[in-house]
Amino acid sequence: MVDVAEGLVDINSILAALEATSLAERLRESLYLFPLIESAHVVGLTMVFGTIAIIDLRLLGIASARRPFTSVATDTLKWTWLAFALTAITGFLMFMTNARVYFHNIYFDLKMGAIALSGVNMMVFELTTRRSVNRWDGSAAPPAGRTAAALSLALWISVIFLGRWVGFTTTHATPTVEPDVDIEQLLPK
Amino acid sequence: MSQFAAWLSLTRWSLAIKVHEWVIPAVQSVHIVAIGVVLASAFMIDLRILGWAGRDQTLSETTARFSPWLTGALVILLVTGVIMVLGEPPRELLAFSFWSKMCLVAIGTVAAVAFQVSLRRHALQWETSLVHHWGIKSLAILTFLIWVCVVVLGRLIAYDHLWGSWSMSPKA
């Protein structure tokens, strides 16, 4: 770790500590836990994407176009959050098993960035377009709402693609069950 | 089956998929996007039957909104699924997870078609009495759980050794 920036050494020791926890160790040693957690992650993320898509398609006027936006949102958003919680928890558990490898994986970083951006996009929508929902609830969403919806769909689809690329560049290159991955090889020289 | 898988591996189409390493993850990603549409569509119809969502709409309206998306996404799943089988025949065709998944997909599809046909024929009965029937509500929960199991088994294809001797995969 000699020629690595000071800050990165700190984060690496935190990540190493995460990998060394007894929970992470149990997840790595068990034959069943990782596959089952990964399956729950897929169930969660498909529900997150599917329920968000229902709202985005309403905003875009493609589906449920005539139904009040607030009705569509109350039907779906609570489930989106429940599914997001499942996805985040299972995602963190998988991250723990091989934290340094994931952290230094470019697709993982891009995926986290895309999730953060869709969070920002959602907050901007909630604080602007959503505030005036009374004016457009039963009709077409204003252009800003449509833009937010298109952005949201694009970002979540990117998250799915990036997630699959994380799987292909970490599991196949270095098996997740392999506890002693040489981190030096993964860092930029 | 392993001979068939071996033969399929050497076909032009299979080799074409294999030489381009990005094809399998890309097709898997499209597959997952389509799963999201199927799962959420089935979920919204089932919630409507349970009376937990869409109560401002009739069951027919909710089904009309979601069933075309469910059907369309199932077609995309079939196409991307075929590409994945062609790309890695032994991984899929020798997996216990794959075949049990296919059985559940068949059950889920038959249930979805039967529901839509019945709803079209007996719309009034569905709206007034059937939707309140506990047996129908249980079936709504059951069909959603079938799709959840389909997703889980789909992911477990990558870990077929977990099934031990039930798996035909030589790696198990």
Largest pleated sheet of chain B? none
Beta-strand proportion of chain B: under 5%
Domains of chain A, number: 1
Q: Please count the helical segments of chain B.
A: 8
Question: What structural class do the secondary elements of chain B suggest?
Answer: mainly alpha
Q: How large is the count of helical segments of chain A?
A: 9
Mean pLDDT of chain A: 89
- What shape does the CA trace of chain B take? elongated
Q: How many strands appear in the DSSP assignment of chain B? A: 0
Work out the helicity level of chain A: over 70%
What number is the mean pLDDT of chain B?
A: 94
What Rg of chain B do the Cα atoms give?
19 Å
| Low-pLDDT runs of chain B | none
Instruction: Output the radius of gyration of chain A.
Output: 20 Å
Oligomer: heterodimer
Tally of individual domains of chain B? 1
Shape call of chain A = elongated
Q: How far is the first residue's CA from the last residue's CA of chain B? A: 16 Å
Q: Could you characterize what this model shows?
A:
- The complex is a heterodimer of chains A (189) and B (172).
- Chain A is built from nine helices and no strands.
- In chain A, helix 2 crosses helix 4, helix 3 packs antiparallel against helix 8 and helix 6 packs antiparallel against helix 8.
- Chain A is mainly alpha-helical and 189 residues long.
- Chain A has one domain.
- Chain B has 172 residues and is mainly alpha-helical.
- Chain B has one domain.
- Chain B has eight helices and no strands.
- In chain B, helix 3 runs antiparallel to helix 8.
- Chain B is elongated, with a radius of gyration of 19 Å.
- The two termini of chain B are 16 Å apart.
- Chains A and B meet through helix 3, helix 4 and helix 8 of A and helix 3 and helix 8 of B.
